[in-house]
Amino acid sequence: MINHKIRKLNIKDIDELEKIELETYGKYGWSKDIFKSELNNPLSLYLAYEGLNEGSKILGYIGTWLIVDEGHITTLVVCSDFRRKHIADILLYNLIVQLKSNKIKWLTLEVKASNTPAINLYKKFGFKEFGIRKKYYQDNNEDALLLWTENIQTEGYTDKLKGIMSQFLLKENDADKSNYKL
Ligand SMILES: CC(C)(COP(=O)(O)OP(=O)(O)OC[C@H]1O[C@@H](n2cnc3c(N)ncnc32)[C@H](O)[C@@H]1OP(=O)(O)O)[C@@H](O)C(=O)NCCC(=O)NCCS
Questions:
Q1: What is the model's pTM?
Q2: Mutation test of ligand 1: which of 2, 17, 78 has the most ligand atoms closer than 8 Å to its C-beta?
């Protein structure tokens, strides 16, 4: 596993974030102004995955709005050179742990119907399809799948999270397993 730290995103990160958005989504990426308003929103939670051996660069981030007992995931990006190294697994896991302690019960999000990597990730974490938003995306008019979790506060879901984390931590020799206990 990459030597990393999970921390909250802050305003000082926005230049770095805008660059990653541009690389990921081109002109459809979030601007600095969008990040400013998201990070100033008291109902949002944004986490960064910092690569400690990469000069503390942000290698990925995830965000959510907290609306009563629902968490609406607004973004999840991993830098292209660092994909398939469990960074999204770790970000989503950390987000869910924090949301569980904030009494959030259900998580929801929209994802492009063709985005197999993201759909696989969310399904692994127990998200299920509950609908389609037709032509939801501006860049290519693609449909969005609307995904929801079961209640993340249940023992069953906690066991599921433990199972997901133990599966890949077991494969990693240098994993600091103590960081990833529920
Ligand atoms: C989707 C994304 C965040 C995944 O990040 P990642 O760090 O590479 O993912 P991880 O290595 O943590 O993989 C976690 C799981 O995601 C799924 N997954 C990730 N990449 C995949 C791929 N290329 N093909 C199929 N499944 C994939 C798998 O289920 C994987 O679990 P496994 O390794 O046990 O099979 C990344 O590809 C990305 O940033 N894409 C562009 C932005 C985006 O589409 N964001 C999602 C918006 S809803």
A1: 0.95
A2: 78
